[in-house]
Design goal:
mainly alpha
Length: 90
């Protein structure tokens, strides 16, 4: 497996995991069930799960009132767009 293929496989896996974690946290809140730590959600997003994060963020309106999530998700998006552009050019 080449470097770009490995990155794409990683991004697929981490985006699925991020979307699942965000959705689980959203569904756990009204039931009073155990929640996912905000730090964990941020790490998943920064690790490349920005697509899954934005999908649940807007799709389920999860954490949209939290300024910290807007900041982390925007920063992670810029970071990963830069990484992908660098990989595409290099």
């Amino acid at each position: 497996m080449s470097g770009p293929q490995a990155v794409l496989l990683w991004l697929l896996a981490v985006n699925v995991a991020t979307a699942a974690a965000y959705a689980y946290d959203k569904l756990a809140a009204p039931r009073g069930a155990r929640r996912v730590r905000e730090r964990t959600l941020w790490v998943l997003c920064l690790a490349g799960g920005v697509g899954g994060a934005w999908l649940v963020f807007f799709g389920m309106r999860h954490k949209t009132r939290h300024r910290s999530f807007w900041i982390v998700q925007t920063a992670a998006t810029v970071l990963w767009v830069g990484i992908l552009l660098w990989l595409a050019v290099g």
